[in-house]
Known about the structure:
The chain is mainly alpha-helical. It is built from eleven helices and five strands, in the order βββαααβαααβααααα. It has helices at about 20-50, 60-75, 80-85, 95-125, 130-135, 140-165, 180-185, 195-225, 230-260, 270-290, 290-305; strands spanning about 1-5, 5, 10-15, 90-95, 175. The strands form two sheets. It has a three-stranded mixed sheet with strand order 4-3-5. A two-stranded antiparallel sheet has the order 1-2. The protein is globular.
Amino acid sequence: MERGNGTVVTEFILLGLTQSQDAQLLVFVLVSVFYLVILPGNFLIILTIKSDPGLAAPLYFFLGNLAFLDASYSFIVAPRMLVDFFSEKKVISYSCCITQLFFLHFLGAGEMFFLVVMVFDHYIALYPPLHHTIVMSPRVCYALLLALWLGGFAHSIVQVALILNLPFCGPNQLNNFFCDVPQVIKLACTDTFVVDLLMVSNSGLLTLLCFLGLLASYAVILCRVKGHSSEGKSRAISTCTTHIIIVFLMFGPAIFIYTCPFRAFPADKVVSLFHIVIFPLLNPVIYTLRNQEVKASMIKLLSQYVVC
């Protein structure tokens, strides 16, 4: 397809994670194991929370939605990456690339806002139970859920709008195993300095501010629980520890990828693999393993199905 004197790019060639056949086989096995073992676990979490009336608290409502969000996020890149391991030429059309990029940031930003909502719920839970029930009513929970989805959509649509305004006339080789903003911008046939700054402020700065805000919030929560009983203090510290682990696992790679001025680093692909493929599958599992109520309900549910 032609536009003026330049050829418009209609597809991108993905260079993949690595050119080493042994390394590709190792990654293929690793990702396959995660999909076959942990992905069903995420759906089991959702089923457990939905089927047990005792898990009706806001924490479990958000945990079930987090498992759904992470399961959806894991479908954006990994299935195509597994197929591409067996392809000589890894080609993705321009429209599919933009679609992948949109959902990547839509669900990624949604999860980032989800963690903010969860720390808010945890803070409210420090008040008396009646106060927590009034503030975090079902209507409020659904309103917060809608707000984080809208926030993710707004963030993603800005990313896509900036990309769509860029001209692409070649080359068309993306030095990655999926489409993301830093690699796509490098292929534009124009000066992208302003776009780089907009992307860093939209993704990198937003991620960094949320990360610092979450750490500050958990510091406030830990200071507040000092006066609680030993059992309440121990439970609050355990929950905060779990959340802080998740925050570091999610925001660390994201800050590494999106706050740098879009220069290539040797570890970029490894960090992206962990951030895009591995972490979303582990996230709800980490929450569940630290939650006795969900584990007990899950064992009960599995035992019922085994007996049947």
